[in-house]
Amino acid sequence: MDEKWVAVSYPKTPAEAFIIKGLLESEGIPVFIQQEAIGKAYGMTLDGLGQIKILVPAERKDEAEQLLPK
């Protein structure tokens, strides 16, 4: 399957990422959490290193963004 995934959120912490993931999945939207390796290893982000991204299928982007708090 060659589904295109796009970022809809950049949470600050892994806990926040899993809360967002749960919210979107509860509405039937597939979610993938992507985090750079240094963030996983050291549990931090700095100038984009270790950044966490919430990815959803491109065709569900608008729906996902409407569910997220502003």
Task: Write the topology of this structure.
Elements: E1 5-9, H1 14-26, E2 32-35, H2 37-42, E3 52-57, H3 61-67
What does this 3D model show about the protein?
The protein has 3 helices and 3 strands. The chain is of the alpha+beta class and 70 residues long. It has a single domain (5-67), classed as Alpha-Beta Plaits (2-Layer Sandwich), CATH 3.30.70. Strands 1-3-2 form a 3-stranded antiparallel β-sheet. It is globular and about 30 Å long. The chain starts with a strand and ends with a helix.
Sum this structure up briefly.
The chain has 70 residues and is an alpha+beta fold. The chain is built from 3 helices and 3 strands, in the order βαβαβα.
How many strands appear in the DSSP assignment? 3
Low-confidence stretches: none
In DSSP terms (H or I, runs of 4 or more residues), the helix count works out at 3
Amount of beta strand: 15-25%
The name CATH uses for the topology is Alpha-Beta Plaits
CATH C-level: Alpha Beta
Residues in helices, as a percent range: 25-40%
What CATH architecture label applies? Answer: 2-Layer Sandwich
Sheet with the most strands? 3 strands, antiparallel
Oligomer: single chain
Q: Strands of the biggest beta sheet: in what spatial order?
A: 1-3-2
Structural class: alpha+beta
Can you tell me the number of structural domains? 1
The H/E string reads: EHEHEH
